[in-house]
Amino acid sequence: MVTLVLAHACRAPQHDVEVAAREAPAPQRSSRGEADPLPSWNDTTAKSSITRFVARVTQEGSPDYVSPADRIAVFDNDGTLWVEQPMYTQLAFAIDRVKQLAPEHPEWRTQQPFAAILAGDLEGVAASGQRGIVKLVAATHANITSDEFEQIVERWLATARHPTLHRPYTELVYLPMLELLAYLRANGFTTYIVSGGGVDFMRPWTERVYGVRRDQVIGSRIEMRYEARRGAPVLMRLPAASFVDDGAGKPVGIAQVIGRRPLIAVGNSDGDFEMLEWTTSGPGPRLGVLVHHTDAEREWAYDRTSRSGRLSRALHAAPGRGWVVIDMRQDWNRIFPPRASSATED
Amino acid sequence: MVTLVLAHACRAPQHDVEVAAREAPAPQRSSRGEADPLPSWNDTTAKSSITRFVARVTQEGSPDYVSPADRIAVFDNDGTLWVEQPMYTQLAFAIDRVKQLAPEHPEWRTQQPFAAILAGDLEGVAASGQRGIVKLVAATHANITSDEFEQIVERWLATARHPTLHRPYTELVYLPMLELLAYLRANGFTTYIVSGGGVDFMRPWTERVYGVRRDQVIGSRIEMRYEARRGAPVLMRLPAASFVDDGAGKPVGIAQVIGRRPLIAVGNSDGDFEMLEWTTSGPGPRLGVLVHHTDAEREWAYDRTSRSGRLSRALHAAPGRGWVVIDMRQDWNRIFPPRASSATED
Fold it and tell me: Which residues touch B276 (CB under 8 Å, ≥6 apart)?
């Protein structure tokens, strides 16, 4: 829970992703000569389970046909669409922001969780518990307007680099998932993000990076108050959570914003359990998908004991519930988009 | 505030609205031979202010051009898109539901607001105040699942009739507004409802009646809890408001769900003041529109002293802020769609 409102981030200049898209290998052709919409997926069960499901619900006249209005696909973000190791990107953002604001706050040198952050002591941050996180959110995400927060996120994303992969965070998205999002939209689905991370931390870049519109991003929310400042109305971000979109909160967030039960749910952690359960317990055909991080060489291998993206209960439940488990190492032939030329050296 | 969570409703069989659309008069042609997209609007300033604004922001190469992603139009519902007199439709729904459930609740004969409702004493309901409304919402909108509530709303809408106009509520929508919604969408706008009424009371019918998708409806929300019932997950509606989408709550609801400041806001009451203010104080071209109910003959004439849809502050502010005020009697040549054949006698 520590990371709920702190679960995200990152931005590359517009052309990075465009370059990535241009440099992606040409789609493979199937034996019937059709372009493969999922070229970064190996021809394993995970891929065929997804494409067979999509064919089944989109084939007119099929008994399982689903009208486009009900073709709702929901995706978790951290660990499902982009990297969540060694820490949630939104936590990295909060830490950087504390460091940036520290000169104005000499008292932070002795106050937790700030002292731990300034000392680079992540265990100390975790030890500060829920009270520490509330203080961290208040200091880094609140008491500013919604417009100011958006600018702060964008500026950070423009320069921040992942600590070990040394790339802008928005390049550390999973190419197979970009393909899956586009494939589903090409088949009449509406794709939503349903994340435990802060909705306002994601919206500045989801449209550009994932093709997911701002109003199709659901996440944790901070309280906001409409008020006048210097005669002009603003939306002030208050230091209190308004909604936590994680675990059993995800079906509630989906009901609040989408108002329909999804047809497809894709996640990677126990925080996605209820979203997959709610989706796949609906009537008619439904698809649940879990990303299992099994690739220590190209990305990370983690599940039951990970601090970010712990996956235990959902992985255990998957076979009995018919959820597709993506084995990242086996099922994906590429993980990330190619490096954008502007970011090759940094 | 009494009516916030109780502000809405109604449903006619699918074909009613289709019949209405077919029977609508053929679009008038302008002097240049183009079909008029707003034939129920007289050629007055209100109409030309709207069409000139739309031309200005959609003309490529114009200095005021706005990309489709930012063409967001928000509409209040009660009194803006459909009738709100003599009471909000959602209040009529709650009253009918109390009457239906009363045999199971003999204690209601002596408890307010139920006793007043059962006696047909609306003043008594109002006198029960906020505590009474909380009880009314709990009894009529909560302690059931989201699916059950939707079915209850749909069943009610199928048979309920307006007390004086004797038509299904979903036929008591303003034809000029149906035209405006369609006209804006044809010009690349996304149209949202932003209502003080309950979002789950609107979603069952907004797509069919207004062409507004379920995920483009924003309203007041009740708390929900994800839980298992007889082994299957459900979303239980709890007897507590989660969010009140009225007044200063409307810009917050817009920020939560849309995540963009609108380009156009349309309302009819002081509860829409902040939504219009937030919209029209944004940079660049913006349009605020108020419906003024001035037609006692064809609909109702009301503003400053009305219990439903009180309009005073916003009407006073309109000239100074450049908001377009629709004078219903002068500006609209038709109010409602033609009667559907199946509903002519009831």
Answer: B265, B267, B288, B289, B290, B314, B321, B323
> CA-nearest residue of chain A to B222?
A256
Task: With cut-offs at 50, 70 and 90, classify the pLDDT of residue A27.
Answer: low
Residue A192's closest CA among A222, A168, A213, A165?
A213
Q: Chain A within 8 Å of B112 (Cβ-Cβ)?
A: no
Q: How far apart are CA A7 and CA A292, in angstroms?
A: 19
CA–CA dist A244, A7 (Å, integer): 11
DSSP assignment letter at B333: S
Percent of chain B beyond pLDDT 90? 83
Tell me what the mean pLDDT of segment A228-234 comes to.
93
- Is the Cβ pair B256, A214 closer than 8 Å? no
The structure tokens listed for B242 are 């989660």
pLDDT of A82: 98
Q: pTM for the whole thing?
A: 0.90
Would the CB atoms of A226 and B257 count as touching at under 8 Å? no
- CA-based torsion, A196, A202, A206, A210: positive or negative: negative
CA distance A290 to A285: 17
ipTM of the complex: 0.89
Task: Answer whether A235 touches B (CB < 8 Å).
Answer: yes
Supply A179's token pair: 């393909």
Would you say residue A301 has pLDDT above 60?
Answer: yes
Residue with tokens 């939504």: B275
Residue contact A213–B278, C-beta within 8 A: no
d(CA A284, nearest CA chain B) in Å: 15
Residue A185: closest CA among A78, A75, A286, A281: A75
For residue B226, the distance in angstroms to the closest alpha carbon of chain A comes to: 6
Q: How far does the CA of residue A271 sit from the closest CA of chain B (Å)? A: 14
Contact B232 A258 (CB under 8 A): no
Residue of B nearest to A249 (CA): B226
Contact by Cβ (8 Å): B192, B75: yes
Pairwise CB contact (< 8 Å): B233 & A274:
yes
Q: Chain A contacts of B190, Cβ < 8 Å?
A: 215
